[in-house]
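Wed. Picked up where I left off yesterday with Aldo/keto reductase. The coffee machine is broken again, so keeping this brief.
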Amino acid sequence: MLKGLQSTVTLNNGVKMPWLGLGVFKAEEGEEVVRTVKTAIRLGYRSIDTAAFYQNEEGVGKAVKEAMQENGVSREELFITTKVWNSDQGYDSTLRAFETSLGKLGLDFVDLYLVHWPVKGKYKDTWRALEKIYAEGKARAIGVSNFQIHHLEDLMADSKVVPTVNQVELHPQLSQQELRQYCDSKGIQVEAWSPLGHGKLLENEALRAIGEKYGKTAAQVILRWDLQERVITIPKSVNEQRIAQNADIFDFELTGEDMRIIDSLNQNKRFGADPDNFNF
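Structure written out below (tokens, as returned):
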């Protein structure tokens, strides 16, 4: 199934998306994000995940353009995700926000456009805007982020297009089993943000012990667990060594017992905001 960093999953609309990508949340606009994205593409990454809220879309776009020239990579080989922020949600405002993001990225289209959070009373109108963007070919796929089961049911009751992806906080202490089963039943691909639990899981003894068997770090064990659970994962780092290390997870396989140990770490513990109780 997974032969390397450019292994892909086919989304419900036929578009192929890499299993592993680079997240750029908190990567500073300018030199830092440009260097980070160029490093990732040079190392073989093809999926880059940004958002309007991250305020680094211009840097991502600059890096993509330069990396394509320097590494002989075509636009079609890359998979660029961005998201509409909460204050821009609503039909017309989402359409405007998308054009702004596209302009900052310097692209003719994005590969995936997401509703960043389920803003009550707005996300359905926002989704209608995404359906228009998708119909016009400006986004190859559309999806959501931080949607719970009830949000998805509400959205799909009136939508024409089923989301391709639901990007949620997901790590061994928040394994999201029920949500994953629901998404699977609807053909929605789950994607993990904060797969390493804001770095707080890297000292976990059980994960480190599993890693020692394979000569791997706790981070590599977690990311491998994601892939074996068929969850897309987008670890973020601005450190070249860690970006390379995060990608070095295709030469080993966790056993069923390893997977059970990792599954047992679940505490339904969030390090980020609760999608049912956020005020931003």
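Quick read: The radius of gyration is 18 Å.
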